[in-house]
Every structure is written in structure tokens, then in C-alpha cells.
Amino acid sequence: MPTSFRKAADERHCLEAIVINQLYNPSSTPSLFWQDITQRIETEEKLKELHLLKAVMEGEEKERGRIAQELIRNIGKHASPATNARRN
């Protein structure tokens, strides 16, 4: 399980513990290694933010299309009587 700590006020580090147990040698002591995963966590957070922004942009685009179609329908309804009056 990753853990994080702050080295300075604006600097965060994330570490992950890795335990290696040598099954072929039961008398040996398990080894514990720490791996700095700060960059991986930051990249994952940026990707989540990008996916969220993409979803917002797609939603806005869909809403603009819906509004445009509604405007076109309303213009068509209002234009029809004027067009029919000129034809008569």
C-alpha cells in the first residue's frame, strides 16, 4: 500500500513498500524494499484530470448541438407563417 510524506512544504513524495520472501529458503528473512512512486502517482492524477476535462468538453459539445437543433426548429416554426403568407 502506497504511503506519502512531505519533504518540504511544496514537495510530496509517495513510497510503495515491496516485501520479498524467499520461498526456496524458508530460514531467510524477508526483504523489504521501498520504491519512490511519486512520478507515477502524479501522472495518474494528471490522467484522471484530463479524462474529467474531456468528459466535460464532450458534455458541453452535446449540449451545444441540442441547443442548435432547438433553435433551428424554433426558427422553422416562426418562419413558416411568413413564408406561407408570401406565397398566397
Summed up, what is this model?
The chain is 57% helix and 25% strand.
Describe the structure.
The chain has 88 residues and is an alpha+beta fold. It has 1 helix and 3 strands. A hairpin with a 2-residue loop joins β1 and β2. The longest helix is centred in the last third of the chain and has 50 residues. The chain has a 3-stranded antiparallel β-sheet. It has one domain.
Q: List SSEs in N-to-C order.
A: EEEH
Percent helix, as a range, is: 55-70%
Q: Helical segment tally?
A: 1
Q: What number of domains?
A: 1
**Unreliable runs:** none
Biggest β-sheet: count, sense, barrel?
3 strands, antiparallel
Question: In angstroms, what separates the terminal alpha carbons?
Answer: 79 Å
* CA radius of gyration: 30 Å
Proportion of strand residues: 25-35%
* Average pLDDT for all residues: 83
What's the layout of helices and strands?
Blueprint: E1 3-8, E2 11-20, E3 31-36, H1 38-87
Antiparallel strand pairs: 1-2, 2-3
Features:
single chain, 88 residues, alpha+beta, 3-stranded antiparallel sheet
